[in-house]
Glutamine--fructose-6-phosphate aminotransferase [isomerizing] (Shimia isoporae), 364 residues
Amino acid sequence: DKGGHKHFMAKEIAEQPTVLGEAIRHYLTTDGTDVSLPGEELDFTKINRLTMVACGTAYYACLTAKYWFEQLAQMPVEVDVASEFRYREPPVTDGTVALFVSQSGETADTLAALRYCDGKADKILSVVNVAESSIARESDIAFPILAGTEIGVASTKAFTCQLTVLLMLALKAAKQRGTLEDERFADLLKSLNALPGLVNVALDAEPQMAAAARKLAEARDILFLGRGVMFPLALEGALKLKEISYIHAEAYASGELKHGPIALIDKHVPVVVLAPKDALFDKTVSNMQEVMARAGKVLLVSDHAGLDEGAEGTWQTIQMPAVDPVLTPILYAVPAQLLAYHTAIAKGTDVDQPRNLAKSVTVE
Ligand code: F6R
């Protein structure tokens, strides 16, 4: 049942305010002032290294969480794609906790990576959507993301729920490790509680995203740029777009542009810049100007303050509500998803069943 939507993907994108709210309520105390983890209490002060492993979109959720665990909880984090991790035979040293992220909980490479860590890591954790899955069953603690069934092959609500649960784990880690001031911790929980409402506001910008997507649909190649915590989201935006619209898209950390990819820029290449007005905004604006100086067409996704400062000379803009910089990847996932969705619609491709792809990859 698509609930009145044309595609499961559209329905699942629209469900995000609701499912994010449920996930947040599940992991916060009733008064909303602390994170309460289900099941066994996890001692983050004893963790020397967090190794996160996943595939595809779930891998990009891990890459995002690396910024959070490092910046908020001062924890050393390693992130890898499961198909590489499992065959590299990486040493799993004392004090390592391994965390596997998977919507289906059945991805063959991720499951094999988990089994490789079994008996080597201090603990096996997982962040899963399907609670009865193999990955959940074989973990010491499985954290559900509570996204509900995801049918669209391109992952949307599972991604934002993965991010939200990972952020709450990072916040819990920060609290236990004493790396975050009480006031900042309280502030972030407040912002988290307000997030579903802001995701709704982001969804209201769908007409602008659809209009932008109709122009993107004419391109052969599209670049995505992001800096800091927005870099993994740029990777996710490019993946989403290529999966369902079959347009070649690539993502780079903004600062990497001049180390090669800028050679690709000309008037035919749209560049989607995901840049909230955060501490790194000015640096991204200067990368954007380098693109525009070579006739590149910039689609800037930012907030009011960012557009005020950086919109001049851009090709198109999309405005997001302002949000705490820590939470931007969750909010900006909405334009990343809807740009891909409407580009696919404009191209007439099969949004829910893209060619060559399966929802659950149970063979390597
Ligand atoms: C992208 C997508 C895939 C999956 C990947 C991992 O939209 O859906 O990249 O994220 O195959 O799947 P799970 O999360 O089930 O392990």
